[in-house]
Amino acid sequence: MTYVLGKLLHIVIVAGAVLPGVGAVMVWAERRVSAFMQDRLGPNRVGPAGLLQPIADLLKFIFKEDVIPGHVNKPLYVLAPVMSLVPALVAFCVVPYARGMAIADVNVGILLVFAISSIAVYGVSIGGWAGNSKYSLLGGVRASAQMISYELALGLSVVPVFLIVGDLNMEAIVRWQKEHIWLVVPLFPAWIVFLVSSYAETNRLPFDLPEAETELVAGYHVEYSSMKFALFFLAEYIHMTTASALSVALFFGGYELPWVTLPAGTWGTVLSGLVFFAKMSFFLFLFIWVRWTLPRFRYDQLMKLGWKVLFPASLAMVVLTAGWIAMVTP
Amino acid sequence: MKTRIVKRPQLNLGERIYLTAVAKGLLLTIKHFFGVCRDLFDWKNKRTAITMQYPEERWDFKDNFRGAPALVMDQFGREKCVACQICEFVCPPKAITIWPAEFADQANNIEKLPDRFEIDMLRCIYCGFCEEACPEEAIFLVKEAELVHTEKKAFVHDKKKLYQMGGIREDRILKWQHK
Questions:
Q1: Does residue B97 register a pLDDT over 90?
Q2: Chain B residues with beta carbon closer than 8 angstroms to that of A36
Q3: Is A227 helix (H, G, I), strand (E, B) or coil?
Q4: Which residue of B has its CA nearest to A287?
Q5: Does B16 touch chain A if contact means CB atoms closer than 8 Å?
Q6: How far apart are CA A220 and CA A130, in angstroms?
Q7: How close B11 comes to chain A (CA, Å)?
Q8: DSSP for A264-326?
Q9: Which of B26, B36, B53 sits opposite A289 (nearest CB)?
Q10: Mean of pLDDT values over B66-73
């Protein structure tokens, strides 16, 4: 009973406070960093350095009228934002964000993340379908095609990790990296493939074709307003958080530091959480950094990159790693 | 006609792999990012950021800027306006209203002064005709350009406000001294 209650509390804290909190700070960071990169200042008036801006944004979203246009498919229209947000929150559950602190420390680990994050495409494409307009439908269709294409490369790019570690459990992968070496060193090309496909999976620039403001107005959420739109928005940022967390856990040593051993006990857990958070922040920054640097891909270029470059590259990495392991192990 | 075959540039492997170009772009944006970060600590000598922090920082207008019209005094604190009403007549939108009054000051050679002098800033078009027409150099368009009030009455600038905006302006002729 206490176990169940503890887990529930853990889930409520992570899914109800930490992830939306990270999302809120990300919205602020996105606007500030983008401004800095364009020689502007960004929102700096609400609170210290503009940090309370997300709260102002949220209040605006809450007090906006919740318009449901007459031409939409109402049940799907209401369902889609939820279907977009929930998988984003659930996918984070297997990530060990501090020593022994994964919500679900399951054996299948990363496979569960991929399974759940694939569901997220339903939210996007159903949202596009329910909007009942050409722009949102195009956005939804693009989202599903893009996610299917890149899911493959994403999944294959982490196979070398499992081949080397010999375990799907995320904690085990982190422990292996502590004992040996950060996996990004031997698997750098695989990490690049992982990074690029995770950008496509989270619909971020340079692969934000489902949204593509200049072509599709706002893509799949063009018919949405107020809190429903905010949920789509939040889901995107939580997907980014999960993708960054996976990058850290699978390739960059997770919550452990190289050479320095963190103390055991409560302090160790807290410190390891901070280490993880710092590493994750860098990858979240990278998301923003890349968005405000690279232009959007054309759709055919996107497909070409996915199927003709990333997919063979990740397959080659799998074969090479497997061959290397077969060579060194007697 | 002579044709010239332009050789298309051949991309080498490094260029075709696209990642070098990505890295170059990332370096450029991060340079600007840190440039603005640096500027935040030394805002006076900003080099990268182009933002002006508006209410705290204002534009530096040129001296001939045509802002709101205002009345000026000379260096002895004497009202230069003699209520001749030329500005009132020349004003295209009829923003200026003057109520002249007799005012006898033998020592300073004053015979006439504006009793009330009002400029309705909701009518004013900032043309500067009043400044051009004034024979006494008493009215000038000053650098005041941001007139924001919450009630209509406040847009009518009275004499006190006009002198406060105009302040003191050096008069090199002082023709009232030599009558």
A1: yes
A2: 32-33, 36-37
A3: helix
A4: B26
A5: no
A6: 9
A7: 17
A8: SHHHHHHHHHHHHHHHHHHHHHHHHHHHTTSPPPPHHHHHHIIIIIIHHHHHHHHHHHHHHHH
A9: B26
A10: 91
- Tally Cβ neighbours within 10 Å of residue B65: 14
Evaluate whether A138 touches A125 at the Cβ level (below 8 Å): no
Please check the confidence at residue B179 and state whether its pLDDT lies above 70: no
Residue whose structure tokens are 């160790």 = A268
As a residue count, chain A comes to 330
Residues counted in chain B: 179
The pLDDT assigned to A48 comes to 85
CA-atom Rg of chain B in angstroms: 29
Show residues of chain B in contact with A293, CB under 8 Å: 22, 25-26, 28-29
CB B124, CB B93: distance < 8 Å: yes
Provide the residue type at B143 as one letter.
Answer: K
pLDDT mean values, one per 10 residues, chain A (330 residues): 84 83 88 90 84 88 85 86 87 82 78 82 85 85 84 87 84 83 84 89 80 75 83 87 89 81 79 88 90 86 87 90 85
Tokens of A300: 């055919």
pLDDT at B129 over 90: yes
